Amino acid sequence: MIAGSLIQKFANVLFLLAVFFLPWQTQMILTTATVDGEPSVYGVFGIYVVEAMIMFAFLLRGRRHTVPQIQRINQALYFFLAAAFFSLGFSQVECIGWFQIVHVVSAAMLFSLLIDDRTNLRQVLSLFLLGLIVPVLFGWYQVLHGSSPASTLFGMGEKDALTPGVAVVESGTSRLLRAYGTFPHPNVFGGYVAFGIVALAWLSRFVRTRGHLVGTLLASILLGATLVVTFSRSAWLGLFVAFLFLIAMMLWHKRLPPRRAIPIMILGLASILATLTIFHAQVFSRFDPSQRLEVISIEERASQYQTFGEVFLSSPIMGVGPSAYTFILERLDPGHPVWSYQPIHNVFLLILAELGLIGVLALVYSIFTINPFANASLREVGTLFACTIAILLFVIGLFDHYLWTLWPGLALTAVAVATLTHWAYPRSIS
Q1: Which residues pair with 32 in a beta bridge?
Q2: Which residues contact residue 212 at a Cβ distance below 8 angstroms, ignoring those fewer than 6 apart?
Q3: CA distance 409 to 287
Q4: Using one digit for the tens of pLDDT, what is the confidence trace for 71-128?
């Protein structure tokens, strides 16, 4: 009994550490697939340190504590995993598919650990926010200095605003390096920060001491300002629509935020507005279709939607296989630079192409199983916040692909969906 208790405690500590270190991209790269002889960023396979921590914690924790509602959600998850494995059997680039499956399974383990009724959600979200401190500091260094050194510990490559291919914002003749934090792209960082803001808004309900209040106020200022300098339009739009829904529903049900949450929200909004004022030229350029980089972005995305049909029709039922999209693109239209072969910036269409109609049916089944909007207690604050996260993920998924293609995105999806499950079905878990 004593040995079992010690193992459980170790597993729990390992799991909590993994949550804290999620933003750290420390990994051991095992191999890199190539496109036309050039290494592809979507063909890099390595085991992340946090993945190993999650796997060990999952195995050591033992039997999951679940109730019928959560069992149905788990069954939906298993159905989706089965569809991914099934598609892998028909993959046109099978070795790449196995790389993706490992990350998907790791994310599924993380989700399972998070919805376990032994998991303290407030503790998890607090650690998640604390883990964002390092990326936030790195992000502001990158923006203010226009460069960032490489770091093996954080899994960061060297960045410079003058280097072609690096994510920047142009205003006139100036180039401003977007905040990467410790992530592979500023859009991924933006997604983490946007989710962090929603989590912070929920946690503000439980602020009791002056120390917690000060910490929460500082966090709201930092996260609000940092979201702006990621210049991630999908994160901006997702958070805007999500909070618009939350405010509208609170007004509809005549539910006001807790008094201690009001100054936190005001300071967060003030921080966003102040940062927007400082970087107004760069912000406006992100919405100016005549800007050089925006012209390129629009053309690339339009081209992605045109070529999507070719990829999908090459295997509509079974899909081309997990993570195979860019490699199929090269086969269909060879001779272009490796960086031009990108997944379509729509996670739902990407899953349709890679997992086929069967995979999408599994995804739809999972969405309807978890669906917080179907909860009878929609006027409950927790359920409203759950719907807020669902909207945030949906909007981001409409305009980007990292929630499926990259490990940090899969991990964010696992944390976000597990969080909204806790909020939507609190009596089922606690």
Answers
A1: 44
A2: none
A3: 25
A4: 788 888 889 999 998 888 888 776 778 888 999 999 999 999 998 888 899 999 999 9
> By CB neighbour count within 10 A (0-12 exposed, 13-18 middle, 19+ buried), where does 357 fall?
middle
Cβ distance 319 to 86 under 8 Å? no
Question: CB burial class (10 A; 0-12, 13-18, 19+) of residue 329?
Answer: buried
Cβ neighbours, 10 Å, residue 362: 23
Q: CA nearest 23: which of 101, 139, 108, 146?
A: 139
Q: What is the CA radius of gyration of the chain?
A: 21
State the maximum Cα–Cα separation within the chain, in Å, rounded to a whole number: 68
Nearest 5°: phi and psi at 44? -80, 130
Contact between residue 26 and residue 184 where contact means Cβ atoms under 8 Å apart = no
Q: How many CB atoms lie within 10 A of CB 321?
A: 29
What would the two tokens of residue 273 be?
């507005």
327, 95 in Cβ contact below 8 A? no
pLDDT given at position 379: 67
Of 48, 95, 64, 85, give the one whose Cα is nearest residue 429.
Answer: 64
User: How far, in Å, CA of 283 to CA of 287, rounded?
Assistant: 7
Tokens of 49: 């340190």
0.85 exceeded by the pTM? yes
Cα–Cα separations (whole angstroms), residue 240 to 55, 221, 237, 244, 276: 35, 17, 5, 6, 14
Helices and strands in the chain, H and E counts: 18, 6
DSSP string, 325-345: HHHHHHHHS-SS-GGG----S
- DSSP letter string over 169-184? EEETTEEEE---TTSS
- Contact yes or no for 110/414 (Cβ under 8 A): yes
